[in-house]
Amino acid sequence: MMDLILAPLAYPFMVRALVASAIAGIVCGVMGSYVLLRGMTFLGDALAHSILPGVAIGYLLGKGAKGPVLWGAIIAAILASLGIGALSKQTKLREDASIGIIFAGMLALGVAIISSVRNYAVDLAHFLFGNILAVSWGDLALMGGLGAAVLLVVAAFYKEFMVIAFDPILASTLRIRAELLNYIFLVMISVTVVVSLQAVGVALAVALLITPAATAYFLAKRLITMMALSATIGVVSGVIGLYLSYYLGMASGASIALVSTLLFLLAFTLSRKT
Amino acid sequence: MMPFACKGLEHRTGIPVLDLKGVTVRYGEITALERISFSLEKGDFVALVGPNGAGKSTLFKVMAGLIKPQEGEVKVYGYEPRGHICIAYIPQRSEVNWNFPATVSDVVMMGRIARLGPFMWPRKKDWERVHEALEMVGLAELAHYPIREISGGQQQKAFIARALAQEAELMLLDEPFNGLDAPSQEEILQVLKELKDRGVTIIIATHDLEMAAQHFNLVMLINRRLLGFGCPEAVFTPQLLKQAYGGHLQFLQTPEGFSIVGDTCCSQGQR
Asked: Which pTM was predicted?
């Protein structure tokens, strides 16, 4: 048994992958709790997909360096969220329609860019479903830094984000600057998606963002416990998923997402019985 | 009881707590409120009545600083309401995410967060305030229960406790008695009367004209315009009620005054 756990750790790429999935699990777990409680799952999913053209352009301009990829992702996510906001405000379309339109358009643009560039060895599947075994130490440092930045903002505005999610009217009578915080929140979601990009990719980002948070929601009665549980479940999904992928030869992003789904179903079944 | 200290704006003394002058609110073509003017003194206890669509919720939102009127002005302690954090607006129950993972005391603590800066977690003093507030509304034993698991009346009391923890000096309650049984209504009324005696100014929107007449020293009757404001005997006259409710109200004239038989106001459905 011990051997089964230790054997993969002989490979540095597995160690880096485990650290990467733990970082992604924690950041997604915490942010996902807010996203879930605010009923913004669809927006989170859309933003995750919308960063694809930014990632692709960043990758091309930076010749594979991570900095431009990150900035491309954040700029694309901000453009997408501004586009969604403007579209719902200026037309009579409901917000979900605006989200759907922008999301599909941005995703198509990303796929178009990646598929038309033949001269660079890049696999669309890596962006869509993650490529955690290729994480470098430099990537890890960047993920750690970004994750820490998101958690710091959460620590700073934990209460404010909580009130906005629970009772927006109270937030405005307490003169909380909800509009500003909402923009900050969108940027935080995009950074979170970038952090989890190599672990699960844009298509499965929701598996780390929402599924662990939903699992924790069944089990927790306070927001702070929900966040802690959700982060733990995210880490556990990442680690178990990686081991499964190592031993069964499955794509890592998919096995991480499957484990988080299984944990959800388990918690759901248990909570029904009590 | 010490007067409440209020962070945000200083309060001018010797002027009305709340002062509205010519407030008009329109939603597109529809006029929701038209030239509403009145002022309230500290400790006034007011029932706001009027048919559905009369603009009661809009009036609350204007007073709380959530909407800016197109015409007229609102002053709370002499300043625009938007700068104040001492106004508590308790909206109708449906406007809150009731499945939120929070305990009763977490919800009450939310009233204090404007007093804590970023990164600041509640201090001992804040939890004491929360506890006092829960004691006052009789929810101390349920402090650690999830908010989603307590009854409607208890949730309403938790919101009043939250307003107390906020140290609100002006409380606006929109239909707090909706869907509550008579004992819960009675308990909440008692708590509100105690608050009034401490100098909190309270306005409650209600459909229950009988209750408004029995328990409040002031009633305000609106139907887009302010039709009457004063003691119940002066406002609940057949003439003014007819003006507000049209043919939708039935009442009986009795030797002591009158009693309302039925308020069938809920059929109009306009905003």
From this structure: 0.86
